[in-house]
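step: validate -> pass
step: tokenize input -> pass
step: predict -> running
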Amino acid sequence: MSRVVSVFFPTLATDRIRRGDPSISAEAPLVVVARSGSKRWLSAVDVNAAKLGLHVGMAAAKAQAFVQGLHMIDADLAADLAALERVTIWALSQYSPIVAIDPPDGIVMDTEGADHLQGGEELMLSGLVNRFSARGLMARAVVADTWGAAYGLARSMTAETKVVPTGKTADAVARLPLSSLRISSETVISLRTLGFQTVGELAATPRAPLALRFGPEIGRRVDQMFGRVAEPIDPIRCPEIIEVHRAFAEPIAAAETIGKYISRHVTKLCLELQAKGLGVRRTDLIVDRVDNTIQALRAGTAKPVRDVVWLTKLLRDRIEKIDPGFGIEKLSLAATMVEPLDDKQMASSLVEDATVDVGAFVDVLGNRGTYRIYRFAPVASDVPERSVQRISAVAAEVGQTWPTVWPRPIRLMDRPELIEVMALLPDHPPVWFTWRGKRRRVKRADGPERIYGEWWQRTSEWAAVRDYFTVEDETGERYWIYRSGDGVDLDTGSHRWFLHGTFA
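step: predict -> pass
step: emit ->
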């Protein structure tokens, strides 16, 4: 069972124009005008124009008279298609081996076997929409079992993302409008005249009368939406992508045979990568079956590599994910994400200590679906919660920490937790404090250690200070607590107390 993502760009044309012309104000209404002979109408409207009552299909002259200061740009279908192609190629390298243009305003991709690299379907969709939004493209994304269901839901919903659980397609699409079936507008109007309003009503109607009046197209689209008829995605291929492939005179199906050709493909791919001084970060195995369906496996690496043995192992470990069906007629291997990689001198244990490379371990975890793999690195900051950062598990050491003579706790809270305290101001440690409903009497204390706010970060920290104490309760547990402010001037803090960490 495939999982298909449909991404819909409701304002693709206007977003493209804004990205290309920064002089257009973000608040100004913008429309795109199409023409046929002397007739001119709105083919696209942005969010600002839609709020003013403009809509697709409105006469251009009427819209211009209705809204003063309206930006009107002539339609350029070739530029829109080129922008859509660039987005598709980008998604190919980032999200899925099988991505295709879904003109005029969307893309479609089969993410089965690749979503684990993005942390699962929900994180994948939210990350996808957020990355498009950061680049000035409004997008809606849906993942479902079929292309038709994902397409219809993406163009009918108001939410940014939606995940349709496996096997729940029929329930999800039953209330969709007829226009979501990818049939002509004339057919939609005729069906509404007959009393049909939703896909569910149409699907429950006997097929023969509809086919006799409208032909087979309606039945085919309904079957594609419900998954009764396969709808293969013809993936886009980029000329710059390094790819090797092999077509078979006789279809293959055995796992041993597939593994043998994977090894040969990896060898050829690594030779081409070496000739260009590149290493692969993301590798896609494309499987073309004799029933005209495509499967794909994606393997990622933490850093660029062209190790034949290692890449072969990463792909062979996932052979069980391949369903050969009645046989495989073509096998392709593509390096969809590459980075420069120079040959390096190997360390010799006779003269120097070899460094431990954890890249292979990270690759194994990542390709098994463990998404958030990272390690901590120091940051030059006195503020405790800013003194560390997450970096890639295989990244070189970055940043530095500022030295301190005061001990730091083993465990630091994600956020300091408010506590109740009895203490003499301004410099005395607490006598007791209540944390998480339990009162703890302080037997020993050390402090205060004053930490000033970072005035260059934000204005609210110009005068801010914290006074930290290391305290030990009656049971021997040690805690790191602080008072916000200097205990005298309220401009320096609220004088409330917080627990920020615990010692071993």
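step: describe -> The chain has a mean pLDDT of 88.
step: cleanup -> pass
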